Amino acid sequence: MLIVGLGASGRAAASQALARGFVVAATARDPSRVAMPGVAVHGFAAAGPAIAAATHLLVTAPPGEAEGDPVLALHGAALAVAANLRWIGYISTTGVYGDRGGGWVDEATAPAPGQPRSERRLAAEQGWRAAAAGRALDLFRTAGIYGAGRSVFDDLRSGTARRTIAPGHAFGRIHVQDIGRAVVTAAAQDLAPGVRVLHLSDDLPAASADVVMEAARLLGLDPPPAETLAEVWPRMSPMARSFWTENRRLRNDMTRAALGQGWLYPTYREGLAAILSSERS
User: Fold this and answer.
1) What is the H or E stretch that residue 81 is in?
2) Report field, pTM of the whole predicted structure over 0.90
3) Which of 12, 120, 156, 274 is the most exposed place for a label (fewest CB within 10 A)?
4) DSSP helix/strand/coil, 269
5) Are 198 and 138 in contact (CB under 8 A)?
6) Alpha carbon distance 231, 281 (integer Å)
7) Where are the extended beta strands (E) located within the chain?
8) Per-residue model confidence as pLDDT tens digits over 123-170
9) Phi/psi class of residue 59: alpha, beta or left (left: φ > 0; alpha: ψ in -120 to 50)?
10) CA-to-CA distance for 199 and 140, rounded, in angstroms?
């Protein structure tokens, strides 16, 4: 398995792949700054031979504003002649669905992106559909990623957490370990050529304020004061505002059936408790 990008999702997938018996390689812009036991790291620009050797390819790198998907832009020719490659996984985003007014979307819902970055993601998905002809392609549309070192615990400890009240607004989330587990389970399946859309989003879309309250309870801290969305809006970054302008709930029934498994952390409650337990141990 070749993993393009060893960020949080890439590392989680690499760890799971090693445990399942895969020989794992990865790419990085600067391999000297990235290391992971058991994983051979190649420079991204020189990844052609690694692509040629791979039977499974996981792409976690986001598309750029100018060049689009970086793998397709630089290594499209190598992909076209990669004779060993039989499975491709692409980490996308649930943002491709745009705003649904709080309504539910499932794996068969047509995308309707409303943000430029989500439009780029959908374009990248379409590029991979074309590049994967004759192979199995899994498009992992992923909700908000959290895990150790990237959770609301860190915001509470630093004093930057907000308890924003927006009635009817809910976010989907997924623990990074569930991403790694789902990706490797999908890669290990004996799949015919074709495209699947899989939702990496837990079983309980929830209000941001509810997650903050639970994390504060687990830490034994007073939660930050409640503020309405209108009150915090002037202090929000453009990126934060873009998240709050969209509201949707993700179903994952078809994904869990396709993978034959549920989540290690089916809601934010189990996920937060596990993060705190691992920190304390």
Assistant:
1) none
2) yes
3) 274
4) helix
5) yes
6) 39
7) 2-4, 24-28, 39-43, 56-59, 87-93, 104-105, 136-142, 144-146, 163-165, 173-175, 194-200, 226-228, 249-250
8) 999 999 999 989 999 999 999 999 999 999 999 999 999 999 999 999
9) beta
10) 6
